[in-house]
Write a structure and sequence with these properties.
The chain is of the alpha/beta class. The protein is 25% helix and 23% strand.
Length: 265
Amino acid sequence: MVWVSTAMTCHSETHVTGRPDFRYIYVDLHVHTVLSACAEVEMIPPLIVAQAKKLGLGCIAITDHNSAENVQAVFDAGKAVDLVVLPGMEVQTREEVHLVCLFDTVDQDIAWQEKVYAHLPPLPNRPETFGAQFVVDADGEFVRENERLLLTSVDWSVDQVVAEVRALNGLCFPAHVDRPSFSLLANLGFVPPELGFEAVELSHWLSPEQACERFPQLSGYTLLVDGDAHRLAEMQRRTMVKVRELNVAELRLAFKGQDGRRVIV
């Protein structure tokens, strides 16, 4: 379904009591920072949140590769301009499938990070090959360089990552499934129904209609379009959610299309 709106960040539906009920909010749930070795140096907190506001986004999720060390900085920068920042991570499983993992709090995300770090190979990053991995503050100032190799796979399978995220009350969905690498369809060939994914992400190159025509196995799934942004120009205002507030529980209901919540692309 394609839905077009002139709304900017959000629009509220209000009952006769005057209490705000549902809001329509543009989201981009897959954004990287300079902690991701493949991201451009412009992906620092103040520029990310400024771009989000310019696009009319009400919420972004920070999803660096196998780490959450810049989440607090972007969260703080977003708070200053009334932008909701969801803590997250993009995890690479042992099948080389990328999964987006989202949480309600930075503390949950850091707890998840510790689990992920324990399942990464103990190898150093090679900046000359993969790129530098910068930890920064809310102003984008350099704090330190993360010397752990993050552009690699954990030793967990897809189903193990999904189970671990849910055990921490997080939300998990497969990233950019239409891509020819690091995607569920490319590496497994299908979406395992037993994993119970509430939604599946597309890259911004395809519309949901094009994706379902090319990949019939996606029919019946809620489809998201995110930026997977590694540079500011890649951030997207393509997906809107109808929710009462922005948290994992509400997103899960929207992904399922339950209780009046939904996803609109």
